[in-house]
Amino acid sequence: MTKVAWIVVGIAIITGLGAAVIPYTKSDIQEAHAQELAPPPVEPALKFAPATPIAEKKANILPSLAGATRFSPGLGKVDIASSYKEVSLPEARALVDEMMLRLPEHRDAALKELDELVEGLKSENPIEHHAKGWLYLELGKISDAVEEFRQAFELDLHDPWSHYYMARMKYRTAVESGAPIEGLASMLIDLRTVIDWNADFAEAYNMLGVARVDGGGVNSAIDAMKRAIELSPRNETYLLNMAVANTAAKKWDVATALLTRLKTSQDPKIAADARTYLDELPNAKKYGILPPRPGRVAGTAKPKPTIAKKAAGSDDDEEDADSKKPDSEPAPDRRKVQYIKGKLLRVDCSQSPVAVLTIAGARSMRLRTEDFHALQLIGADQFSCDWKNVAVTVNYKAGGKTDGDLVSLEIVQ
Q1: How confident is the model at residue 18, as a pLDDT?
Q2: Which H or E element spans position 340?
Q3: 110 — phi, psi (to 5°)?
Q4: Residue 211's domain is classified under what CATH number?
Q5: Over the stretch 26-41, which tens digit does the pLDDT of each residue have?
Q6: Are residues 17 and 102 in the same domain?
Q7: pLDDT (tens digit, 9 = 90+) per residue, 94-114?
Q8: How confident is the model at residue 242 (pLDDT cuts 50, 70, 90)?
Q9: Are residues 12 and 102 in the same domain?
């Protein structure tokens, strides 16, 4: 034995490890030293479970799909489809021109090419007409726009964009002027055509909701507005119109909650309209009179229909000239003067100097004066468009453009 081995044996005997000690060789001692000097094994911080085979995962996730294997994506040939529509060259050019019309720097070139397609190449299609109709609407040329849409309908009665723009024209005119929608029945038909074409058209549902409020179908109006909000939940105009629909349906709590939320909107126009409408809710609840529609633009008048000019030298020129001559004397107004006493809820001076007064008395009435500067006043030095919730006594003549025409107005102190 070597010296080191004998030392180990001696230590074992001294410490009483036992009488029988097997001697270690030099290689055994070196291996023991190496193990002592080696760093301890580092345990991993995270222990991961063994990965589940892909085939087993597929079996767990898609157990009911026949033929599902580890190579199957879960879709078959019947699950994937494609469709296409052949577009003629003139239609393709018209579609490009329609997009170019939206860009002011390309508008003139697009309009020129559209005219060439219609007049030069004789390749008339609805796209050309409803594209030009949109441009005329943006420029305020209502009669020209209507003519373009009429020509589009002659080519395709179901052209969806022509129906949409026609409805849009009536909607915008009514909202900006604060007047009821004109041509309500045809607007509803236009919107149904658009929605049948594209069931996810949020603006079409919004306009449909507003039109149904005007038509008296408040429950169906709320349904349409709900769909518009589902499709475009961040559009605050839709939320404001939903508040109007709920007011018409006498759902005061819902309307109040919506308006309270919108009066803090980052959009100053939405916030102002919501505050104004919210202020009118108590009167609406008490007297049952729906407040003016939000979105009205001060000084906006309804577009007047224009009559197509007759060709020069026609037989009707002389008749037209005669019709332009003013009557020698206006017909006397023989309507009976009537009397009402009540509360003046608000004054609409958006078409100044015309003023429309909403009065709640024995019944609610809207009375009009062509010029409030010339209206006979009692109990006030001058007329005010800011009068609200004021006790009044009114003389009026029934009929005219509203419930009646004002004769005199007395402010009761």
Answers
A1: 43
A2: strand 337-348
A3: -65, -45
A4: 1.25.40.10
A5: 565 566 555 655 555 5
A6: no
A7: 889 889 998 989 988 988 888
A8: very high
A9: no
Residues 6+ apart with CB under 8 A from 401: 368
Cα separation, 339 vs 394, in Å, equals 6
Q: What's the DSSP call for residue 173? A: H
> Is residue 70 included in any domain, yes or no?
no
Q: Could you tell me the pLDDT band of residue 226, with boundaries at 50, 70 and 90?
A: very high
pLDDT on residue 404? 84
Is 360:287 a contact under the CB 8 Å cutoff? yes
Centre a 10 Å sphere on the Cβ of residue 281 and count the other Cβ atoms it contains: 16
CA distances in angstroms from 201 to 158, 208, 217, listed in the order given: 16, 11, 21
In the block, residue with structure tokens 């236009």 = 190
Of 199, 216, 251, the position where a domain reaches its end is: 251
Q: How far is 97 from 107, CA to CA, in rounded Å?
A: 8
d(CA 323, CA 332): 20
Indicate if 121 and 233 belong to the same structural domain.
yes
Neighbours of 173 (CB within 10 A): 18
Domain extent at residue 15: 3-37
In a domain, 76, yes or no: no
**pLDDT in the model for residue 256:** 94
Residue 112 lies in a domain: yes
Q: What angle do CA 370, 373, 376 make, to 5 degrees?
A: 90
The verdict on 241 and 150 lying in the same domain is yes
- Considering its fold, how many domains does the chain have in total? 3
Task: Judge whether 18 lies within some domain.
Answer: yes
Query: What is the C-alpha to C-alpha distance for residues 350 and 302, in angstroms, rounded to an integer?
Result: 11
